What does this fold into?
Amino acid sequence: MTSQIKQRRLALGLQQKDMKLRIGMKQQQYQRIEAEGNPRLDTLELVAEGLDAELVLVPKEKLRAVRELLRAGSPDNKAGKKSAKADEDPWSDILD
It folds into this structure.
């Protein structure tokens, strides 16, 4: 999870010190989260907010479909290829 936090920060072009302006967290505190991980849930929610992200719980049986869906829409997928599973709505039976 800490690598995902760092990747998201870098994708936004942010430095660790920028988190102070975004969420009021000192660079040292934020650096510990990226280096050591295991933040409290409320801290993780705050970091997600500062990185324009959302925390989501995904049932294990839907994880593969969600990952494929995310890959299909990622900039790395230049051809815009979608798998059959990615075309399905992985949330349909959860959110109904």
